[in-house]
Amino acid sequence: MPLSPFFLNGSPSEQRLVQDLVNEHLQLFGQDILYLPRKIVNENTVIREVTASKFDDSFRLEAYLVNTDGFGTPADVLSKFGGKDQDEITLVVSKERYDDFITPFIDLFPEGERANAVSPQEGDLIYLPLDNGLFEIKYIERKVPFYQVNDLFMYEFRCEIFEPEDEVIDLPDGLTDKNGEDIEESQITEGQVITLQMEKDTTENAVAYVSLATTFTGVKSVQRVPMFDGGNYKGTPTVTVHKPTRGNQATGTVTIAEGGIDGITLTSGGSNYLSVPSVSFTPPNLTTSSQIKFGNNSLHHTAITDVIGANFAFTNNVDSRDSGNGRLSLSFWLYPTKFDPAVNGGTVMWTDRFKIYYRETGNIVFASGSGSIENTTQLNLNAWNFIRVEQYNTDATISVNGTASNSLNTANPIMFFAGDQLNLGADTAGAGFIPSQTASWEGFMDHITLNLTGDNATSSNSATQVPSSETSQETDVVTSTSASFIRKLDNEQPTVICTTNAAREVSALTVTYEGWGYTSVPIMTIEQPDLGTQATAVAIMTSRSGVSNQSVDRILLINPGFGYTTPPQVVFTGGSPVSTAIATAVISEAVLGPIGITTGGNGYNFTPTVGITSVYIQQSNETEPLLMNAQAEAVVSTAGTVVQIRYSNAGAGYTNTAAAVAIGSVTSNSFGEYQRDEIVKGVSTGTSAYVASWNTVDQILQVSVPTGDFAVGEVIVGAASSYRVLSITSDVDGEREFAQNDTFETEANDLLDFSERNPFGEF
């Protein structure tokens, strides 16, 4: 009988309703899972067996867990290969949800990685967060329920616990399998074969150098640290050798004259100066800023502070009568604070050949030989005035603030000869000049400049030029020649050189520059003696008979230091002592300094001997010789290089000639043949693995079942072999020719006799 036309069985609207109900049910009562599609890495071309695969993509999907009473599974079994987990689950997923959210992405996989992108495949993986485990799809029921309303709405996955082999598995960040492992972008090592390109181990001998700790006579360093009591320690204590003590500081006294240092007297040479000390002084006195024209100071002059001395001595002849020399220009800044009618003004400066002074009215006068000239432009009191004297042959002028006087014609022009001194202040004798002006000026002076130009005439143009800076004054305004003499009158500290003797004392103080600007005696400070260098050491521990803990066996010196005058104290800290160790330091002269490593070498799997050039040959009857040969021990890193050399005895009596350090040679560690199935181990990483094959000619080593990762550059040792890793290749195919099934079965037969019907029951 035909179907009723009143019921539309299998209409699109009914099918849509059923699909929506399925989706809603799964979202309400299901579990979130991760679907990991299998990708083919390598496939057998004959029977198309997948020999290697990977799971490096995952898709979140909801699924209904059909199991209600636990995992549907036979009991877990114990076989000759160990315990086997046989958990099984059944999951239901929406066909529409799979097609919409997984199929489009799988369809984008490169050709050959996926056999079918339309529907799920047996061999795909399910990650179940509920159990934190990976399950493999063993069977997919695609027609359940069987064509309800004429369509299929779900997949039923029947899964078993996944047993990984060679697969690459990448779970999303933060997720792990039930063993707590996330093998992201890495290789599960069961059955994996790793190919190692080996090479013969290259070696290099270490090289070191050493020099004397100090060359000073009487300066001592720590030679050795003998033990009195090793103590009782749970750990290794820290060894501290006290710093050397500082010597006595040298002292001296200072006298001044004309604003600078006149003399120095050494009152004490101090002691233990390992290097030449520096000398410093308190800074000169400063004037107020309004009384400084240029720089940081000016000369403050009173009636009793006349300046006559070497600070103003000329070193070159300056003779403006010589047509080859040309015009002479002498300029300075003057700040008068007093015009005294009682003394007819005051003398500003003079030599044996000229004088410059000002009258009580403020007019300034230049006198030379038998003549003089006066500028009627009055000086400004308590203010800066620029004075310039120009002279050529018998002509001379004097200008004040850019206004020049009339020319002076004299038979004895301005001249400066080498050794002449420019004196500031009163000329008590008058020097034969007319008029005889003996009083001193009072006020401030700044920046005295002497220019000798190539033009052969005085210039009215230059007289109008008032400098705005030091540079503009020091360069002649007409011919742009640089000044031949400059006295800035700035505060300047003196310079003193120390000399030390063989006894390490300051023996002399030599003044190389007197300084300027001192109105009172400065304080001189001679640098303190050097503190020297603190010795450093380490403790070497050893077990002691009848004691469960350790004692200090010996002390090795890293740096003997220098600058010791008395044996330093040796202190032990840390190490949780039951009783503290006791040691003292022995100091001596001509001790060797710390040993530097030029080349650490490589390939040292042993501690090499260290030989140091002998300073003498000890006689049999010597018990405590004044000379002693140095002895040292090397420290080798895990990488096989020498990283440090320590002294057990830094020696004594070595000369300035540096001793030679010889480090024991290292030979190649490459030898022998690897044997199949033997266990080899990496020296650096500690990784072990089984030997699958060894090619002697090409030096290619294949290993399986590694416990970790080997490192390029490390040495892999076997029972009678050793070579260094040049490169590493991981064989994803997992070649089965290296499987160890027979080995496992043989080992298992020694544990259980599976020829019995019930090996776990009673006899």
- Largest sheet data: 8 strands, antiparallel
CATH architecture term of the largest domain: Sandwich
Shape field: elongated
How many domains, in number, for the residues? Answer: 5
What is the CATH topology assignment of the largest domain? Jelly Rolls
Report the β-strand fraction as a percent range: 35-45%
Query: Which oligomerization state do the chains in this entry correspond to?
Result: single chain
Number of helices: 6
Distance between the termini: 71 Å
Number of strands: 55
Low-confidence stretches: 183-190
CATH class wording of the largest domain: Mainly Beta
Helix proportion range: under 10%
- What structural class do helix, strand and pairing data support? mainly beta
- Provide mean pLDDT, rounded: 79
What Rg, in angstroms, do the CA atoms define? Answer: 51 Å
Characterise this structure.
The longest helix has 18 residues, at 12-29. This protein has five domains: 12-183, no CATH class; 194-201 and 669-745, Elongation Factor Tu (Ef-tu), domain 3, CATH 2.40.30; 207-242 and 535-663, no CATH class; 251-285 and 493-525; 289-487, Jelly Rolls, CATH 2.60.120.200. The two termini are 71 Å apart. With 763 residues, it is mainly beta. The chain is elongated, with a radius of gyration of 51 Å. 34% of the residues are buried. The protein has six helices and 55 strands. The strands form 17 sheets. Strands 21, 23, 28, 29, 30, 31, 34 and 35 form an eight-stranded antiparallel sheet that branches. Strands 1-4-7-10-9-8 form a six-stranded antiparallel beta barrel. 6% of the residues lie in helices and 36% in strands.
